[in-house]
Every structure is written in C-alpha cells, then in structure tokens.
Amino acid sequence: MPFVKADEKTISEAFEQFSDEKTNFITIITEAFTYDTNAAFSILSLLPLVTVDLDMLPVTLLGSGEESIAFGMGFLGAKDVKSGENENGYFVSHSNDEGVSYMMDIVYDAKSDELLCTSLKDGNENIYVQYQKTSFGYIAQYYLTYDDGESRLFQLSLSGEDGIVGVSRNVDKPVALSGDENYDFPKTNSEWYAITGNTVTGLTSDGIDLNFDYTPKPSEP
C-alpha cells in the first residue's frame, strides 16, 4: 500500500484522537488498580507511559504553525525551537538550558492512520513511538531509553474503554508494528494488564496473576 503523506494539522488531529483513547484507558485501569492490593503498585509501572506525553508535545503542536510550536515548547523551557518539513514527514528540534539538544522526526501515513515518531537526545535515540489504527481500535508501542542505560517497552491494544498494556524492562528495541498483530499481542511482555468491561486481568512485575472486578466511580455532573 503506497505511503500517503499528510499535512501537519491532519497529523496533530489524528495523534490527539489516539492520545485521548490511550489516556482514557490508562485513567480507567489505574483507577481499577486501587480495587486490589496486589495491583496497587502497578500504577508505578505505567507512570512513564503518562509522563512521556510531555515529550510528545511537538506532535500535538505540529498543526499550529511554526511560531505557535516555538511558543508552546517555550513553556517547557525549550530554546532555539525549529520545525519544518523533511522527505517523509516533519521535524521539531530544540535545546534546553543545559545545552542538551533534541530532535524529533514525525512520519505519518494518512492511508493507514499510522504514526512513527523518533526522538534523539544529543544524537542518541531516547524515544520511539508508533501507533496504528486497526479494525478494533489501535495498536501502539513506546520504547523509552534513559540516561542511565535503562529502557522500558510499552505495547498497547486499545478498543474503546477496553484495552491491554504490556511492559518489559531492559529489552531490545522492538521491530516496527506491521498492523497484523492480534489484540492480545501486549501479553507477550513480562508484565501486562488488561481491562474488559469491569474485569481486570494481568501479570504484575512480581509475577502475581490478577483477576478481579471493579465498579467505576460515577462521573462528575
């Protein structure tokens, strides 16, 4: 299937739709963790999957124009912000007060609703993010590398308010998603959590199997 490049606004809007579904799933499952003492500390396992959203701000701002990108990134202390178009997509670069440089490449295929982002910190890859639209919702993976050499892999399947997230520590960078992955593919990780309706299942970092029901808190009026 030929690659179809999209404009910046289309990319930002598509990423926002995916991010909203991911955020909703993480919110629901972390609330559910509070219903079982064996799952309580699993919230910490998913924390990097929440904090990385700040690092993904360039994608969110991409469709707002060069000046707005620089202004928005400035709230995070970014300096020398540059953005533009490259061969397959777009880029946003900046530095911080310590002189550390960051470069994010953003490639989006409008045909398949697939996003691939690679971020470099001082020339070394520290963030790799991919999501793809599927028949049931989305599949995604985040590979995060830290200054101390540690790494985290998060893989997700999202279907409305249901979903699965898998977590592995200090593993190699994953191969790119093909779009043919089945819904349960995140369960191949050493740690995983799933929610189906009001039922939570999973395998914690301590090797404890989870299987319990929870009652969602009523929404605020």
In short:
With 221 residues, the chain is of the alpha+beta class.
What does this structure look like?
- 24% of the residues lie in helices and 37% in strands.
- The protein has 221 residues and is an alpha+beta fold.
- It has one domain.
- It starts with 7 loop residues before the first helix and ends in an 8-residue tail after the last strand.
- The model has no long low-confidence stretch (mean pLDDT 93).
Q: List the helices and strands in order.
A: HHHHEEEEEEEEEEE
Query: Beta-strand percentage?
Result: 35-45%
From the alpha carbons, calculate the radius of gyration and give it in angstroms.
18 Å
The percentage helix is 10-25%
Which helices and strands appear, and what pairs or packs with what?
Layout: H1 8-33, H2 42-55, H3 57-61, H4 66-74, E1 79-85, E2 90-95, E3 101-109, E4 114-121, E5 124-133, E6 138-145, E7 151-159, E8 162-169, E9 191-196, E10 199-203, E11 209-213
Antiparallel strand pairs: 1-2, 2-3, 3-4, 4-5, 5-6, 6-7, 7-8, 8-9, 9-10, 10-11
